[in-house]
Model the fold of this input.
Amino acid sequence: MAGLLAAGPALAQSSPASPDVPELPAAATALTSAGNRTSENAVRQAGDAFGTTIGQEEIGLYSSSDVRGFSPKAAGNVRIAGLYFDPVFFPSDRISGSSTIRVGPTVFGSPFPSPTGIVDLGLRVPGDKAAASVLIGADTFGTRTLEADVALPVSDAFSLGIGGAANLDHMGDGTRDYYYEGALIARWRPAPGVEIVPFISLAYTPFHEAATIYVPDGDVLPPPLPRNFWNGPAWQRTRETELNAGVVADWTIGDGWSLKAGLFRSSIKYFADFTNLLTGVRPDGTAQHSVLADPPLLFASTSGEARLSRLWADGPRTHRFHVSVRGRRADRRFGGADTIDLGPATLTQRSTAPQPAFTFTAQEQDRVRQWTVGLGYEGRWDGVGELSLGLQRTDYRKRIGLPDRPPLETNERPLLVNANIALNVSSRLAVYGGFVTGLEESGVAPENAGNRNEALPAIRTRQFDAGLRWQPIGDMRLVAGLFQVSKPYFNLDASGRFRALGDVRNRGFEASVSGPVTKRLTIVAGTVLLWPSVDAGGIAGVGPRPVGAVSRRFAFSADWRPPQAPGLSLDLNVNHQSAQTATVSNLTEIPAQTFVDIGGRYAFRLAGKSATVRVQVENLFGFQGYELFGAGAFRPVWGRAARTYLTIDL
Done:
């Protein structure tokens, strides 16, 4: 049962596997470390098609921002080393070398899930041997990348990891983003059964040009948008610092008792921030150009979890009880922006306007305090099935307002439940089903809203899902299931404010087929069929589908190692999505899009060290299209690009 359901790390590390089911390859959350980067290969290391990131590579149906049509981050479904984490932004490769999206049966082993799916982040923990990895990369847009990771064992009990990166990113829309990062991560074993992993990553962006957001004149698509062109004035450059820090402690107490705890800090501080807008874009390419300039902004969150567990065996059955305490303290300082009207413009006209003197207004303060206490049970009966239950009481408090006014307050204290069950039909086939409720943030108003950056209230959510997992032959794996996720629906109203407009329900079917077809060919393929609907209670101008809805997605990735060329592998990625709803009224949609990427890698020895060179062409056929950036707001799809990087393990 353990292998068939691909239990998450919390359960898989300490529960015996069923003897009648072959173990699956390790999931992408297996720890990565310096000295092992030349073997990074998302296709060969993915457990399914739902979403895997390994180093520079990302494949699958879902991402850290979109699972089953919703944000797992807003749902409180991000985990780092299996523990609750509320990121303001996601850690980089220097700290987290991999991530996996968990839905359906792969949620087993991750206690207390919420609706949508879990983003499971692995840590790049230093090993017991001295090692280092260096990556040097470039692409045809002009990007240059340098990454380095070093592992230094100081003693038998302590290892230190040091990482650094310099990215000079040139984007397909003509913008540039220069980014520098330093990171430390350590592993300390002060006593038998105790492991402590502290980490910190600090990044500085001295130069970031805000991508242009195009808002058409009316409920239509804009004309074809320019590629490799940015129209913003030279002074419109964002500067920011980003911090991710934390510590994970794991204590095997004895007699089946264990304690796992983590405390994390995530923040981003903008010294200067801008939004570049072309509004009223007409078919002839004329528009009105404006820039929103923000005073210094701060978004920060401190979060963590402590989980006490008791595991015992009862013949072929294992039982695990959890007592969990989670908390987060989130603070945001936002608003006060100045709007600069740069006058009439065209899509291909670069602004030469001089920098004005900005006039900022008072900023709003947003403060969230949330504590959650949970009781959970996970049981497994070898050859029979698995059961996961959870009950949580959460206390959510939010205060928002201007410094000179009484704040608006929101308090919620719901009781949350989750129940998941899986039954073995045979040694290779299992069926599963689950129900879960949640309380989540509804995010912030987008950049094209009249109440831009405004924090929105917490919402109640619920989810049902059911399906099967099957190993038809060898290590090939198939997962297929139905799901329904229901939440309040927030979007732009007729006045341009981002607010609650009703309820949204996403019903869907998802399927994944993955594994080695032969010893030389591995595939990862999946599809999502979605039937989204909005109940707006008769509000005028609100269509029956939510903004951003896509009815069909298909993802296919393959990696082939030709027998005639040892060390060489060739890969293919195909991603297709059907038309995407682009406006609240549903009168506008982005046509269907298909992207094809081809590439290869060659492993060899360089001065006696393992090395891999990677070459990939993205958007092979140069597809021209639109990326949705909120209701009625668009950015161009980047054109064809070739990229290459060399990785060396020292």
Observations:
- The CA atoms of residues 158 and 188 lie 5 Å apart.
